[in-house]
Structure formats: C-alpha cells, structure tokens
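User: Hello! I'm new to structural biology and keep hearing that structure can be predicted from sequence alone. Could you demonstrate with Carbohydrate kinase PfkB domain-containing protein? Please show me the input and the output so I can see what each looks like.

Assistant: Of course. The first part below is the input, the amino acid sequence of Carbohydrate kinase PfkB domain-containing protein. The second part is the output, the predicted structure written as tokens.
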Amino acid sequence: MVTAVAGPDADLTVFDGHELHVVPAASTLTFEHTYTWFGHQRRLRVTANPNVTLSRSHVPWHCQRARIVVLGPLTQHELDAASFLEYDGLWNQLYRGRQYIGLMAQGFQRRLAPDGRVLPLQTPSPQLLAGLGRWRRVSLFLSDVETDTWSEDWLGLVVGSAQRVLITRGSQGATEYNDTGVHTIGIVPVDKVRDTNGAGDTFATGYMLALARGFRDPGNHASWAASRAVMQGQACKPQCAGDLIEGHVAHWGLADRAGAALRGLVEVVHGAVDLTLRDGLAALVHLRGLPRGALWKVLAAPPSSNALAPLPPGGADAGVDPTEWTVERSGVS
C-alpha cells in the first residue's frame, strides 16, 4: 500500500494497480529539474509545496502495523519519521509480529532556500536523527552524496543509532554498517545502463523485502534488484518495480528457503524475549523513580508523540553538535 500527500491536480495514474491512500493537500510537492554541464549535474528547485507533514496517524489503521514499512521523504518537513516508531506495547507487538522499518533519508538532507532551490546539508539533520528513534529499529539508506561531508563522529553517531546503515555508491556498489562490522556490497554487472533514476529506491525496497523474509544476504538481493532497475526506461519503473524486486526470489534454492524460514522463527522467539525483558525492566525503572501518589497522574496523562524521539538541539534546517545530541539521547528514560 502507498500513502502519499497530493493536491487535487496530481496525476496519480502512476499508482495504478496499487492500493493507494491519498492525504489531501492544497498542492502537490513539485520539483523543477535543471541539468547543467552537459547533463552531468542536476539542480532541483521546489515550485509547489503542500506544507503537510505526513505522519503515522495519516496511514489507515489496517496498514499501520504492516510487516514492511519503507519511508521516503523528499524534503525535510514532508514526513514525521519519528511517529512511525511509536511504541505499541508488548501485547500489540507480540500479536502482530516484528515490523521492519526502512528510511530512505535523502530528503532529510535537503534544505530549501527562500527561492525554492534545494541545497545539501553538510551534517545529519535533526529530522534524520529523530527518525532513528531510541530502539535501533531502523534500516537507514543514504547515498555517498549525502554522507561524504560527514565527520567520523557524525557517521559513528548515526551508525550507532540505527539497526543498520547502507550507503550506496553508484557504480562502486554500497557499504553496509551493522552489528557485525562494515561490509561491502558489490554491484551486479549489466549489459547496458538506460536510466539510473530510482535505482537507490529499488535497492532499499529490495533490501527490506529480503530482510523481512530472512534471506541470508539481503544486500545481494538489493544489488540484483537495482541492476534490473538501471536497465529499464524511466516510464517503466513505477509499473514494473514489483517484478524487478521480486524477480530474484525465484533463484533461491530449497536450502536457502529453509534457512530463511528457520532464521525467521529464531528471530520471532528472540524478539518476544527481548520485548518482554525490555518492557518489564523499563516499567520497573520508571515506576521506582516516581514520587508517591504520582502513578495515577502517569496513567491519566495522554501519550506524547515525541516521547520516543525528541528533536536534538539546534535549528530545524541545520545540523547539531554530535556531542550534545549524544548527551540528549542518553538522558531520555
């Protein structure tokens, strides 16, 4: 299912064949593309902005706990990623199973000039940091265009806050940071590159699909899907994206499928134990720290949508100091 913000003049035929939920707005986010240096450099300018921030509350209830969620903001304020990380509680998560959340955060690394020009940020934006939440649940996708200007401290902070970070590098493949270290994901050679637009999105979606299915090497699946995408024309990609991403599944043998099923079962058991311990310990620590007579106030207070992912200090369009953000995060109980 696709949830999108769109104005009354939006052409939504690109989503034909998909379940679509539209959040109405006065206008549709529109970019103007200008190519310079013989087409090798692209400049973007926003010509229409709906000024609507998409959040989890906009998503239909039956889709809020989908198995796989892929978030793709195009600008800093288009999406409230932190709202999709709101903690549902032990019973809800045990009943519905683990949710895999992927964040394609290129849009969070763009700021808009007064004339609408799209300018890059040199450090991680507050929206990106808040979108990672507290529980390291997010698979973060960026390109080297956004991360090459980051210091080692910034990169270390982001890697330590996400479940995994994948940085695509065009023809050089991709780099994955996870709990086991730093890994290189190679490319799948293609006969002819027709159009590279959408290759990163296809890579991220293919990775999340393979991850949720328990495949041993999601990066290999993602690289294969991206290689199919660059061989297609731009007009094909919205309609044939599903075939591009799903096509590699047929190449997995019986042993791979059995191993994926076993890893999925182990993950469910591990997740249940982790949730039980985490909820129980968090509740005990929190309640012991309350003054007498304050419990009823906590139970009666409405939940805060920002409790799990507070914005770091600093402006909305500027990076913040990594040391300050580390202190801020460690102070949240």
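User: So the tokens describe the shape?

Assistant: Right, they're a compact way of writing down the 3D structure. Reading them back into a model, for example: The chain has one domain: 2-330.
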